[in-house]
C-alpha cells in the first residue's frame, strides 16, 4: 500500500476562490461579507475536480491513499482576524471532508487551523476538535508564521503553542508544519518561504527541549525538511556545540520528513542521511511544481519513482516509507484503515 | 593551489568586541560612544589570533589562501544607524586588511559594508571604494536583510540595490550574499537565518531578470546555496512554470555556490547537481560549526576532505573548485596572485 501524507485540495472548484474573494472584500466593506451558506458546490463538481486531477494521477502512479488538507497557500492566515479565519477554515475543511466522504478509500482529511497573527492558538481548538471528532481527520497543518512571512509569532518551542500540543497529545495526531502564502516581497511562497519555514521549524526544535515536555508530539516537516538533510552535518555539529543529545535521540523520535523533493539526487541524499523510519512518502502533487521534467520525461512531483530508484534503500525500508511509517505517525489513519479492512472482511 | 573564498575574522582580539559593546552603550548614552582611535590592537595580537587559529588550520589542511572578511554575525547591521555602521565597518575592515598585510600569501580581504535598515545603499559606496582601492580587497559581503531577520528591505532584484551593483561592475568584484545575526527569535542565526537567506536570495534572482540588467554581476551564495542544490528539481520546475530560461542559462553565469556543507553526502549532492564551474571551495572555518564530527574523527568544517572524496568530480573539476573558479569569479584576486608570481619571478 502506498500512502501519500501530503496532498492539498489545490484543484477546488472556482466557487471557493470566488467566495474567499468576497470574504476579503467584506473586510473593507462589511456589507459585502458573504454568508458561509453562499458557497454552493455540488458533489458532482467535487468529483470533477478530483477525478481528473489528484485521483487520476494517484491511479497512474499507484498511490492508494492521500492525506488531504486544504490548499496551503490559500490558508493565508494573515488576512483579516480570527473570525475571518474561523469561517474560512471551516469551509475549506468541510470540502476536504466531503472529498474524503466521496472517495473513502483514497482520501482522508487533515485539518487547516483558523490561525490568525497575534491570536491565542486556543482559538483553533474548536475547529481542530470538530475536524478530528466529527469529520474523521487524522492530522493537522500548523502554520508557524500566521503573519505570512513576517515571522511575528514566537518559535514553536514557546509556551504560546502548548495548548495546540496538549490537544494533539489528547487526540493522538501529528502536525505537519506548513506555512501559507508569503506577503513579504522578499520571500517567494513556494521557492523560499516554504523551504525556509521547514528549516526554521527544525532549528526551533533543535535549540529547545520541546520534546521533553511533549514526548509523544510528532511534527512532520514537509518539502524534504527544507535545507535540513542537505546540511545534516551542520545540524549535528550545532547540536553538539550546544551540548544537546545526538539528533537521533534529541529529535528523531518526534520529527519526520516527507519526500517532496523533486529530483533523484535530492531523494538519494534524504534517504541516505535520514533514517528510513523518519521518512514519509509524499508528493504534494498538483502543487508547487506541476510540470514535466525534461531531463526525465516524468512529472517533477512524481516522487514515487525517486523512492523506487533510491540506491541505499532496502525493500523493507521502502515499505516503511510508503506505508508503515504513516501508520505509526498517524495512528488515526492506521485505525481507519484497520476498521475498513475489518469491515471488508465481514 | 587551494583558495578558500569564505573566511571571517571570527577570532579577532577581544578588544574589538569590547569596543563594539562600548559603541552599543553609546547608542543609549552618547557620552559613552568610543572614538575609533580608542581601539588599540597590536600586530602581535593580530598574529596571535591568526597563527594559532585560521593559519594553523590552513597549514594543517593545505589551504593556501583565504578570502577574509569581518565576522559575519558581528556585522549586526540592525544596531544603530548608518553612522554606527560606517564606523564599525571601517574598524572591522581595517583589521582584515592588517591581517592580509601581515600574511599577504595567506589572506586577502573582502569588505563588510556599512549597511543599515532603511538606509540608501549608496551610503555604502565610500567604504566599498576605500576597501577595494586603498586596502586591496577583492570582494564584498552584501547583506540582503540588514534588519537582522525581519526582512524589511526590498528583494535583491529591486532597483534599491542597483547603486551597489553598478559599483561592483565598475570595480569588477563579486558579492557574497551573507546575512548577519538574527534578532528575530524565530530564526537561529547560523542554523536557520543563514540558510534561509541563501535560499531566499537565489529565489529572488530566479524570479527576476536582474542579470539581464547586470550581465557581469556575480553573486556567491554561501553555505552550499542554502536549500537550493538539494531542491534543484524544485527550482528547475518553478523556473519552467514561470517561462524562465533553463537555470544554467538564466542564473549560472552569475551565481556561484560555496562548499560550506559539513558532511560528505551534502558535498556529494552539491558537486553532482551543480556544474563544477559554479562551485567555489570554502570552509568558513572556525565559524558556525567548530567541533569534530564523531562519525569521521575530523572537523565538520574540514571541507577539503569532502571535495577530495566526492565521487563524481574529475581532477580537472577539483582544480576548478579549488582554484580556477575563484580566479575567474574574483578577477582582482587573480590579478593579485599574478602580480605576486611576477614579483617572485623577478
TrEMBL record, chains A, B:
Which Pfam families has this protein been placed in? Amidohydro_2
**Lyase in keyword set:** yes
Q: Which UniProt keywords apply?
A: Lyase
InterPro entries, per this entry? ACMSD (IPR032465), Amidohydro-rel (IPR006680), Metal_Hydrolase (IPR032466)
**Amidohydrolase-related domain: which residues?**
3-331
GO CC annotation terms, alphabetical: cytoplasm
Report the GO molecular function annotations. Answer: carboxy-lyase activity; hydrolase activity
Q: Does the keyword Lyase apply?
A: yes
Q: Which terms does the UniProt entry file under GO BP?
A: secondary metabolic process
Organism superkingdom: Bacteria
Protein name per Swiss-Prot or TrEMBL: Amidohydrolase
